[in-house]
Amino acid sequence: MLTLHEGRGTTAAASIRTAVTVPIRFPDGYATVARVLTFEGLADGREHLLLAFGDAWTEDGAVDPGPSPLVRLHSECLTGDVFGSERCDCGPQLREAVEALEREGGLLLYLRQEGRGIGLYSKLDAYALQDAGLDTYEANLALGHDADERDYTCAAQMLAAVGVESVRLFTNNPDKSGQLRDLGIGVDAVIPTAVHLTPANARYLQAKRDRTGHHLDLPAA
Ligand SMILES: Nc1nc2c(ncn2[C@@H]2O[C@H](COP(=O)(O)OP(=O)(O)OP(=O)(O)O)[C@@H](O)[C@H]2O)c(=O)[nH]1
Ligand SMILES: [Zn+2]
């Protein structure tokens, strides 16, 4: 069993609380089915979810993703994931990730870290500051938050709970792979998501590329 590194968070193991099968259909008609797990003992006590797709789970419902599965750590974004907001790229990334995970057999960790960990209301306060000219990170700081308050200790606990010790990570965000490695989860490959550019999220994506080193191949401004 993986021993989580000291430092960022708990070394305590989390355990699976429930596992249920959920058929899924996106607004564009893409349909699939997921095995959805909840946990006991997560470091922050929040209701994070693990969804297994494709051959990452078996007929009898066991989640058995095999060595180095494709994994997406997706931070909750109500505006993007649910309402299709074009101010960010979360909604299309979620849709893209589910299709890739279904194809390859992999795990989506849906992390209750709305607003890069600052919460929904504060994210919308940050949007208002961005409308006044601040970038997505400056706005967090102006509100008295860190630029990014996310800690992925719970993600490492969830992966360990299903026996995963190393992953291929579907992300453009170098902090995600860095934190997982610090927590003792191997990252064998980083697979970038597509660039989901809209007129409303161009500044946001540029800020992620320029300030936090996101792997985003954007057209010249
Ligand atoms: N505070 C704040 N949070 C934002 C803003 N735009 C998006 N978010 C949040 O940022 C997070 C985006 O998470 P992810 O989809 O994992 O994006 P990411 O951290 O860029 O990493 P990858 O998508 O894996 O490349 C969600 O929690 C969103 O709610 C913003 O302008 N301000
Ligand atoms: Zn978003």
TrEMBL record:
What's the cofactor? Zn(2+)
SUPFAM superfamilies given for it?
Answer: RibA-like
Q: What class of enzyme is it?
A: hydrolase
Q: What is this protein called?
A: GTP cyclohydrolase-2
Stretches assigned to the GTP cyclohydrolase II domain:
27-190
Organism of derivation: Microbacterium rhizosphaerae
Q: How is the cofactor bound?
A: Binds 1 zinc ion per subunit.
Which molecular function GO terms apply here? GTP cyclohydrolase II activity
Q: Which residues cross the membrane?
A: none
| Role description | Catalyzes the conversion of GTP to 2,5-diamino-6-ribosylamino-4(3H)-pyrimidinone 5'-phosphate (DARP), formate and pyrophosphate.
Would the keyword DNA damage be found if you checked this record's keyword annotation? no
